[in-house]
Design a protein that fits this description.
Order of helices and strands: EEEEEEEEEEEH
Largest sheet: 7 strands, antiparallel
Number of strands: 11
Length: about 150
């Protein structure tokens, strides 16, 4: 199958997706109004038809308007931790704006702005599970086609 990872692509722009070889990572961001950090943990795994993204845990640093943790969340060390309801998302649609801090992509103990991997165009960035042996152009076509469903 090849090296597993994630592919990042700008929804509104043509071009090749960026491949990041990673099997587990955390996606983090700060709520634009409440200024509270949110984190979600993911695993990239193999499936019969390729790579698959699995959401394994999530946490939010507090509770405020519009960002209440789910009822099953447990407070521990200032974080409300819970298991995401959608455990196997097909893709993540990350809205990136010049008016908000960028998402952070964390793995191997380091967090970096998503713009270190793929600059934002102020629109939506698609994140999907993929593998290094996938034809890059066909991956981009697949990503673009799924956004309009």
């Amino acid at each position: 199958m090849g090296l597993l990872g994630v592919c990042l692509a700008l929804l509104g722009a043509a071009g090749q997706p960026v491949f990041i070889p990673v099997q587990q990572f955390t996606l983090a961001w700060v709520h634009t109004i409440e200024k509270v950090r949110w984190e979600e943990d993911y695993v990239v795994d193999t499936a019969a038809d390729g790579a698959v993204l699995k959401a394994v845990a999530a946490r939010v640093r507090g509770s405020a308007a519009g960002m209440e943790p789910p009822p099953d969340a447990r407070l521990k060390n200032g974080w409300y931790g819970y298991k995401p309801q959608i455990s196997q998302p097909t893709e993540l649609r990350l809205t990136r704006s010049v008016f908000a801090a960028d998402y952070e992509f964390c793995h191997a103990g380091l967090c970096r702005p998503l713009s270190d991997y793929l600059p934002s165009d102020g629109g939506i960035t698609l994140l999907t599970a993929c593998n290094a042996n996938s034809p890059i152009q066909s991956s981009l076509s697949l990503l673009s086609a799924t956004t309009f469903l």
